[in-house]
């Protein structure tokens, strides 16, 4: 089987407060999406990377001039719909049921090729597949709308899910079609089928740029890479 990467980059980045889709915000001299794609380009085992854009994206060509990889304007209203659109496109371009697809958020621009290699090494002979994740170090609180603690949650068996998440093309397509727009990641859709994805421990440096203050942290890390 081959390995494909699929990068959903069709979000609006509302929480970032950037006033534009955050994947196009420049960090350390390049748009966030360029950093993400550069890291994936350094993984020789990936046969191809497909970038999923919004159908009305007007920034990609200027942000990544001359980009030679696969691009599809099939993004949807939710991340899951964008990934489903990308999976259909990968199938059109020849991905088979048992080829692996590594879905990676455009907004995780700190990605390092060695983390992708670690995921592939850990999962390529797994019956289900898996994801990069980080064990929770902080004490976990549940809170109410008024910003008060309602409970302390046992953190010992909790992990923060990251990406890439790696599953067979046929399985993840079926799983997302069943769970639909509600799935915030591929693993939860696969779990809903009764399967248990493998957790592959990684670094918290693989965080998702989400809030306004995250850009500064990402800049510092990218400038000192
Ligand atoms: N994404 C996507 N299509 C959507 C929503 C999200 O392709 N309809 C992508 C984003 O571009 C991002 C990744 O999924 O790379 C993770 O999503 P998130 O961090 O939530 O990004 P946004 O949805 O853009 O941000 P926000 O939720 O703050 O609006
Ligand atoms: Mg979102």
UniProtKB/TrEMBL annotation:
It catalyses: 2-C-methyl-D-erythritol 4-phosphate + CTP + H(+) = 4-CDP-2-C-methyl-D-erythritol + diphosphate. The record marks 155, 208 as: Positions MEP for the nucleophilic attack. Pathway: Isoprenoid biosynthesis; isopentenyl diphosphate biosynthesis via DXP pathway; isopentenyl diphosphate from 1-deoxy-D-xylulose 5-phosphate: step 2/6. Catalyzes the formation of 4-diphosphocytidyl-2-C-methyl-D-erythritol from CTP and 2-C-methyl-D-erythritol 4-phosphate (MEP). PANTHER family: 2-C-METHYL-D-ERYTHRITOL 4-PHOSPHATE CYTIDYLYLTRANSFERASE, CHLOROPLASTIC. NCBIfam families: ispD. Belongs to the IspD/TarI cytidylyltransferase family. IspD subfamily. This is 2-C-methyl-D-erythritol 4-phosphate cytidylyltransferase. The gene is ispD.
């Amino acid at each position: 089987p081959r390995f494909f990467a699929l990068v959903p980059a069709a979000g609006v980045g509302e929480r970032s407060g950037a006033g534009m889709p955050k994947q196009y915000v420049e960090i350390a001299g390049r748009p966030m999406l360029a950093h993400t794609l550069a890291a994936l380009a350094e993984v020789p085992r990936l046969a191809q990377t497909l970038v999923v854009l919004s159908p009305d994206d007007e920034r990609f060509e200027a942000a990544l001039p001359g980009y030679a990889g696969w691009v599809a304007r099939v993004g949807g209203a939710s991340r899951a719909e964008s990934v489903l659109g990308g999976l259909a496109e990968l199938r059109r371009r020849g991905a088979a049921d048992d080829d692996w697809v590594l879905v990676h958020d455009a907004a995780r621009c700190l990605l390092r090729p060695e983390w992708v290699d670690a995921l592939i090494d850990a999962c390529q002979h797994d019956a289900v597949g898996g994801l990069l994740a980080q064990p929770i170090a902080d004490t976990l609180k549940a809170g109410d709308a008024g910003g008060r603690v309602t409970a302390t949650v046992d953190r010992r068996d909790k992990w923060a899910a990251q990406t890439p998440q790696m599953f067979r093309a046929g399985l993840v397509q079926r799983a997302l079609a069943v769970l639909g727009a509600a799935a915030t990641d591929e693993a939860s859709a696969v779990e809903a089928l009764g399967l248990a994805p493998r957790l592959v421990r990684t670094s918290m440096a693989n965080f998702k740029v989400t809030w306004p203050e995250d850009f500064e942290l990402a800049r510092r890390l990218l400038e000192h890479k």
